[in-house]
Amino acid sequence: MLKLPIIYYHSIKEPPEGIESKSKSTFLEPRRFERQIRVLKWLGYKSLHLDQFMECFDTKITPKTRSIVITFDDGWRDNYTSALPVLRKYDMTATIFVIAGMIGKWKTLSGGETGNYIVNEEQIRELIRMGFDVQSHGMTHRRMTQLSDEEAMRELIESKRVLESITQKPVSYFCYPFGNFNIRIENLARKAGYRAAFSTIRGKIHNPDEAYCLKRIPVHHEKGLLRFLSSLYIKDYRRAQAKMNRLRGAGNS
Length: 253
What we know:
The chain is built from 9 helices and 14 strands. It has 253 residues and is an alpha/beta fold. The chain has a single domain (2-248), classed as TIM Barrel (Alpha-Beta Barrel). The strands form 5 sheets. Strands 2, 5, 6, 7, 10 and 14 form a 6-stranded parallel beta sheet that branches. α1 (21-24) links the parallel β3 (11-12) and β4. The model has no long low-confidence stretch (mean pLDDT 94).
C-alpha cells in the first residue's frame, strides 16, 4: 500500500460566462491554479514523474519528502500556455494525458456548450523538452467499457503509437476517458503494454492490485484553497474505495 496524492486538472482557464455548473467544473482560473501550486511549493511538496511514482508503488516505499503527482486530462492548449509557465516558475513537473486523435484540433465539452483546442505536435514536443510527461488519454475520448475488446485495444494501441511517434519517448501510462473502466478494460490496458492506468476514483491510498485503476483527486472551479488542502490532508476516501471495489467486481459488465 502506498499513500501519495495524485491530483488532476482539466482546463486552466476562466470558465465561460453562462456555462452550466457541470461543464464549469472542467475549468480552473489561472490565478487560482498558481495560488495552489505556490502553496504546494511553500508546504515543501516535490512533484513526481509517473516513473518515479511507479517506483514508489512497486517498492511500497513512500518518498522521504512530501510528494505529489500533478496530472491534466485531455491535453487542452491552455495546459501549455497557462499551466506550463506556472509549473516551471515553481520548479514543478506534471503529466498531460492527451487525446491522441484530436491533437491540434478543436474539442467541445460533453454538453456542447463550449470548447477549446487540444495541444498541437510542436507544443507536445516543447512540453517534452521542458521535462513534462505526455501520456495517453485514448484516441477518441470514448467510454472504454462501452467498446468491444477490439475497439478498446485500438484506442489503447493506436494512441500509444501516435504519441510515441511525436514524443520519441515510451508512452507507458493510460488515463481512462471519463474515468470509465472495469476489470476487462484493466486487463486490456495491461495487454496493450501499459505499465499503469489512471481512474477518476478519488483517494490517495493505492493498493498493490490497483496499478491499472490508480486513484486521483480532482481540482476544479468549485474547489477553493481550503477544500484543496482538505482533500490532501483531511478528507476520508473510504466511500470512494467502496466504489472502486464495486466497479472492479463488475467484471465484464
